[in-house]
Design goal:
By secondary structure, this protein is α+β, with helices and mostly antiparallel strands. 43% of the residues lie in helices and 20% in strands. A hairpin with a 5-residue loop joins β4 and β5. α1 runs antiparallel to α2. The relative contact order is 0.11.
């Protein structure tokens, strides 16, 4: 009957552990999916911000001398010879209320030497914003002040200027960047599953080659770790012995069961097919003779000569000496 209860208990425990493992696997799979999705979104957002970044080059600023010749170095990004979008913003004002209104001209010279007028107007006019698509290389921007037919050699005397050039360095690669971000997110998801699969197969191979007592120790440790990590409490019966036993089973039966289990394990590991024989059932040596129950039966008699442990020890030692002399 105890064996039946034990088998039923073990089976119910195994089913409970399987359900717990399945629930944990589902939770872990859902967590990994959410982490992969968040990573994919972050990669796309990061590239979206990076593609819109602007490298600002300050040409002129109000209150400082005017830079009449500014050279802008447009880089060749990734050696792909793509044109870079560039924004030009400008603002011109008379130096003060007493200076005359002058004529302002902005010119652009390409690396090939082609010269073109970007904008021209009075110092009191609004200068609009412009957008260029510039090839890689050195581009020159000239700011000149014209009075009559001659250019003023000292434009800062009558003019205050502010001008900036902003380069969108990564905008030409926006599509390629989104493709790369999505491929990277896909690779991370596939690589995560592949790595976890390799680790799982190695763990299963290690567990298959593990002895029975090591497997039991591993299960007990996992249960204890799960309890310490905040999971369900570990039952006391899960940490005692190699199997659960009924409360009324004697210690002798437990020892016998453990010996049989270890013997069965040694048969599986070493290939020993000899039948297991319990040492407790082997008859004792005939030379010792049959045992007796002398001194173990009858009413207990009080011996006033025994008061301490030393008295008991001397009594036992005396009896032993007597037996030796009789022999």
């Amino acid at each position: 009957m105890n064996l039946v209860h034990e088998a039923m208990s073990r089976e119910s425990n195994l089913e409970g552990k399987k359900k717990k493992k399945m629930n944990e696997k589902k939770k872990n799979a859902r967590t990994r999916f959410i982490a992969t999705l968040v990573t994919w979104l972050l990669l796309n957002l990061i590239w979206l911000q990076a593609s819109q970044a602007i490298a600002v080059n300050e040409v002129n600023e109000h209150g400082r001398e005017i830079n009449g010749n500014y050279v802008l170095n447009v880089p060749n990004m990734m050696k792909m010879d793509r044109d870079i979008p560039v924004d030009l913003s400008c603002d011109f004002q008379p130096k003060n209320s007493t200076v005359p209104v002058v004529w302002v001209r902005i010119q652009h010279e390409t690396p090939d030497g082609e010269n073109s007028i970007v904008w021209e107007g009075n110092s009191t006019d609004n200068c609009p914003n412009f957008t260029f698509s510039l090839t890689p290389g050195k581009h020159s921007f000239y700011t000149t002040v014209v009075q009559g037919e001659d250019a003023d050699l000292y434009p800062s005397r009558n003019l205050s200027a502010e001008m900036e050039l902003g380069m969108h360095l990564w905008e030409p690669f926006r599509i390629e960047g989104f493709v790369a971000a999505n491929l990277l997110g896909l690779f991370l998801g596939i690589a995560d599953r592949a790595i976890r699969g390799i680790i799982r197969r190695r763990r299963e191979a290690l567990i298959r080659n593990m002895p029975l007592h090591k497997l039991r120790q591993k299960e007990e440790w996992e249960q204890l770790s799960h309890s310490m990590a905040g999971g369900e409490a570990v039952e006391v019966g899960d940490l005692v012995g190699l199997q659960e036993h009924e409360a009324d089973e004697s210690m002798e039966m437990q020892r016998r069961r453990m010996r049989e289990q270890f013997a069965a394990q040694s048969v599986e590991v070493d290939g020993d097919t000899d039948a297991f024989v319990d040492d407790d059932e082997i008859d004792q040596d005939d030379e010792l003779g049959p045992g007796t129950t002398e001194g173990l039966t009858g009413a207990v008699k009080e011996d006033r000569s025994i008061r301490t442990v030393g008295d008991l020890w001397r009594r036992l030692s005396g009896n032993e000496n007597e037996k030796k002399r009789k022999r």
